[in-house]
Amino acid sequence: MEKIKLFFKPYSAIIFLNYWWVGIFLFILSFLLPSVGFYAIISIVSTIAFAEIVGIREEYLKYGFYLYNSLLVGMGVGYFFDISYAAIILTILLSIITFLFSFSLNKFFSWFNVPILSFPFAVVSMLFYLASLKYTNLLSNLLHRTPFIDFSFHNVFIDSFFKSMGTILFLPYVIAGVVISIIIFSISRIMFFMAVLGFVVGVYTHAIFVPYYEAVSSIYNFNFILIAMALGGIFLIPHPKNYLLALIGVIISVVFIDAMQVFFNIYSLPVYTLPFNIIVVSFLILLYWVGYKYFNYYIKETPEKSLSYYLSKIYRFGGDGIKIYLPFSGEWFVYQGFEGKWTHKGKWKYAYDFVIKKNGKTYQNDGLFLEDYYAFGKPVLAPVNGYVVAKRDDLPDNFIGNVDRVNNWGNYIIIKSDYGYYVEISHLMQNSINVNVGDYVKVGDIIGKCGNSGYSPEPHIHIQVQKYAVLGSETLPFKFVDFIKNGKLYYYDLPKEYESIEAPVLDNSMKLRVNFILDDEFKYRDSNNKEVIFKVKMNDKGEFFLTDGENELYFYTAERLFYFYDYKGGESYLKELFKLLPKLPLINKNVKYFDVLPLEFRFRLHKLAIMQFISSFNHKFFNQKVEYTKEKLKVFSKYGEVHFSFYEKGFSLIKGKNFELRRINEKNHSNY
User: Fold this and answer.
1) Cα gap 295→289, rounded to integer Å
2) CATH number for the domain that contains residue 463
3) Cα-based distances in Å from 545 to 311, 534, 557, 563
4) pTM of the model
5) DSSP code, position 620
6) Could you list the residue range(s) of the whole structural domain that residue 551 is in?
7) Is 365 part of any domain?
8) Would the CA dihedral through 237, 243, 246, 252 be positive or negative?
């Protein structure tokens, strides 16, 4: 089966899709012009055979981009020449050359995190075209291009759009374009929308400079379609700003195509996809190096899925920004936040100060002594996993009313996190730091005590994230992973000044209950007494998932959180489980919390398609929060409830609105 997928995926990759079954349709369609279909097969087979000879591992091939350039070259040969021995040999040679060029070019382009697109095809096809002018055996075998079947809408603009769509596969016929358009529309409305929009803008821009009929009939209009789809939804996240960038790329390409045509005509060379490649790669290199917000670093099967993944990262997991844990346990009061009105200014604006308040005061008695302050001497915890790179703890704690203006930061510790940034905690108690430089600390480890050293008017914890390991380095924005406020658990957020928050406490027993291990098996019976089995498996990326044999539900266990983050498959109990339990706080307190379900879990069929399309214009449509309530062994949501067994790990009862799964051979039910 994998070999079959390997063969058909390159066909799908030509139109930016990663579905092997789409390749089957395009494979059949390629025989609309038999020579195109025939040489396409020759190119794929010869490229795979060469890859096996030189020992290229299959994982390099299965994503398609090493093969689809060779496929395009084969189709190009089939577009110009009828079937002959000379053309077959030429196709094999060109396919191998294209594969070599693709492999080398990909290594270079990967430095800039941009795709090779069809650059290898564009270059090798020019070599082919030039060489063919000398091959008299080939020239006598030029093809008379007549497809098996075609039709017309009797509208120049509409016919031109579909012909341009078909030209992507060297099938410049209306019927080919219609089939490809139906495939694209059925899979991604965003891609189809950009294809139409790119074509319209490209043609009418071109018509400003040349007669309309010349603009609408240009054989290179397919470049407009490819540029619009690539920048509008494949390599950039679907968003109005990117739709605009895509159209700018299309408009620029108008001049680019005409200029290249004039130059290439001197040597009787076709332009092919070179404008598309140059425009898209130029945009992507620029946007990647400026750190563009909507750059698509995780390209999924469709723009809709890429958008869902991107928005899930933002609204479910706080985006790609820095996230740290609170440096204390218990309940503390936010004395000063980002850009505070006292000391958090300028390059040190991203910092937080915490104190402990009881009955509206931070101290007991008259507050004349350090020991009167509730925060003084309280444990300070590591907010990240990482190595201690600097510390100082010999400075005395100030008497109340005094500050140390010379040693502003007081006693401090700097930790380099596993992700490369640095966390500084300041104003610690004298001689309280119990770790040394070079020690590795984990989240929650006690590293010192709250003090009043440095420029500190009263005992408090100062925490900041910074660029470098140097004391007082420029600070960086961050969020706290979790905190409890007014009985609600917040993730990847920042509390406001003058709010009291509580640090969640890990429930180790609950963490053990969701410690799913490879090949664990969980058996259930549904309401129809049918046996349902979930198994724990791992893919080639090291990701763990639950599977029922057909569908896959991906999960991850963090410090104090278990969550599902991806699902592959159709309607199933696993998909329902995602709805019931997208996140599970692994803490020892009953709280309310919120999560955002991806659109594919909230809508179906046409409603889903509409919402996905609308969300690409306004990402806030995605951010519809669902409330969950955590009790000791249950999680409740609007979709149902999930129970946990007391002695066994995993879920003992999964109960949705229209279904119920009960564990088989459950050891203990008395705790519910």
Assistant:
1) 10
2) 2.70.70.10
3) 21, 10, 12, 11
4) 0.89
5) G
6) 508-663
7) yes
8) negative
